[in-house]
Design goal:
Elements: H1 6-10, E1 13-15, H2 23-40, E2 44-51, E3 54-65, E4 68-69, E5 76-77, H3 83-95, H4 120-125, H5 149-157, H6 173-187, H7 191-200, E6 209-210, E7 223-224, E8 232-233, H8 243-246, E9 248-250, H9 252-264, H10 270-276, E10 295-297, E11 303-310, E12 313-320, E13 325-331, H11 338-350, H12 366-375, H13 387-392, H14 395-405, E14 413-423, E15 426-435, E16 438-446, E17 454-461
Antiparallel strand pairs: 1-3, 2-3, 2-13, 3-4, 5-9, 6-9, 7-8, 10-11, 11-12, 12-13, 14-15, 15-16, 16-17
Helix pairs in contact: 2-11, 3-6, 3-10, 5-6
């Protein structure tokens, strides 16, 4: 385990050869990153900033692995930021006449539930109804065993659909596994190989690897915390789990090269970029907020973005087309919110100011508060947990929750954030827990119904 001393949290920074931000801006970015990493005790980060369509800043901070300082050329696991590449692969295959995004899944892959009613476009837009195989923010027991894409399909994509295709938006890693298998079948080559030839090599993205290849001491390691406990190294998932839903590792500067191609409408036909960035509508005509592998935000400024979560890694990639700017943040801990905090604060620095805030919804929090109160005393009623949650809450986890939360005493408030949403067959609700001088975030997943068991109950430091 890394020793997180004051010296480490002060960070070891390795500058790129050319940093075109002003000295004041550079100093501000350094402070933004240092403060965020220190607040959440994150070992390292790799940052890239695009302004006026050019990479103007790349820098790595901290320690990527035991004995390995972070460097700008090191590939970090970008997880679900990989989805935009999988989606673009299908768009390129459509250009070649090998498929249509309006084709049905059953044309290429048999056995998927209602595959004769689900289109490839719905796979990429998260509107297929196929259940997500990994909605949790922790590694569940099955992920400790190697798998193959078809095994994921057999276990999750052959279940009854969560809803009729096109009726709802619900994030689904499983749908992207299905899409990846179709891309490989149609192109007659591995997905990463196809992307290497069509995207990575032409753009000079030399750091890209399959994330399964980067779980060695030569690459960044993933870390995390249980509640506010000590930083611990995470055990990587067994081979094969992320595949087309999140299998890529790359440097921040290489991901920024892809962002510049998006800004410039380069490399692929302009209508492919447009198709990826067009918000998909649901059957009722409402906007989903998502295109093909990317989130789309039109207010307060147009933003094409995605986040990524792998075991021990968090990333954020945000492109601002109208400003010809982009921010890439890659970190090697999945505790807290350093990636979103850094992105937000750098955006305030390099982009014109905007106005507008999201509304915060209220929901019932009695049960969540009861479980939280148990954990801060180092105990837990396991009868309320699913099999996966029981697997997660090992004695060490419960002990870390108790030893780190107990000394904080009684919260001054315990309030829901946003409205509950459905994902992977679970109802998801977040909470903010406030104490004098600090706040915590709580992420809860429940089985549907008043007495549904708890699938996830994770406490992290709040922004």
């Amino acid at each position: 385990m890394l020793k997180f001393t004051a010296a480490l949290l002060a960070l070891v920074a390795l500058p790129a050869a050319a940093q075109q931000l002003s000295p004041a801006e550079t100093a501000r970015v350094d402070k933004i990153v240092a403060d965020a990493l220190a607040a959440d005790q994150v070992p390292s980060a790799s940052i890239a900033i695009v302004r006026n369509g050019k990479i103007v800043f790349t820098k790595a901070y901290g320690q990527a692995n035991e004995g390995l300082l972070a460097r700008t050329d090191l590939p970090y696991q970008i997880a679900s930021n990989s989805k935009q590449f999988t989606a673009m692969a299908l768009l390129l295959l459509e250009d070649e006449g090998k498929l249509s995004l309006d084709d049905h899944v059953s044309k290429f892959l048999p056995g998927v539930t209602d595959g004769d009613r689900i289109t490839l476009r719905q796979l990429l837009a998260h509107t297929s109804g196929i259940q997500d195989f990994w909605p949790q923010d922790y590694s569940f027991e099955a992920m400790s065993h190697p798998t193959k894409p078809q095994a994921i399909v057999d276990r999750w994509a052959k279940k009854p659909l969560d809803f009729q295709p096109g009726d709802q938006w619900q994030y689904s890693n499983t749908a992207y596994v299905v899409a990846g298998l179709i891309a490989e079948k149609v192109s007659d080559e591995p997905l990463v190989s196809f992307l290497e030839k069509r995207i990575f090599k032409p753009l000079g993205m030399t750091s890209v690897k399959d994330q399964d290849e980067t779980n060695t001491p030569a690459f960044p390691a993933g870390y995390g915390r249980y509640a506010l406990g000590p930083v611990r190294r995470e055990t990587p998932p067994a081979h094969g789990w992320l595949y087309a839903a999140g299998e890529l590792s790359m440097s921040a500067q290489d991901l920024a090269k892809w962002d510049i191609a998006r800004i410039d409408r380069a490399l692929v036909p302009a209508d492919d970029w447009q198709a990826q960035e067009t918000m998909v509508k649901l059957n009722n005509g409402k906007d989903s907020g998502y295109g093909l592998g990317v989130f789309i935000q039109n207010s307060p400024r147009r933003t094409i973005s995605h986040g990524g979560e792998a075991v021990g890694f968090l990333s954020e990639n945000s492109v601002y087309p109208d400003q010809r700017a982009a921010i890439v943040v890659l970190t090697n801990s999945w505790s807290g919110h350093p990636h979103t905090r850094i992105t937000r604060d750098i955006a305030k620095l390099i982009l014109p100011p905007t106005t507008g805030q999201s509304a915060v919804a209220q929901a019932q929090a009695v049960r969540a508060r009861s479980v939280y109160d148990q954990l801060r005393t180092g105990r837990l009623d396991r009868s309320q947990l699913t099999e996966n949650a029981n697997f997660y809450f090992k004695p060490t986890v419960i002990a870390d929750y108790g030893s780190s939360l107990g000394p904080l005493g009684e919260p001054t408030s315990f309030e829901p954030t946003g409205d509950p949403v459905l994902r992977g067959g679970f109802v998801i609700q977040g909470y903010v827990i406030k104490y004098p001088g600090r706040s915590l975030n709580l992420s809860t997943f429940y089985e549907p119904g008043a007495n549904g068991r708890i699938e996830q109950f994770l406490v992290t430091a709040a922004e």
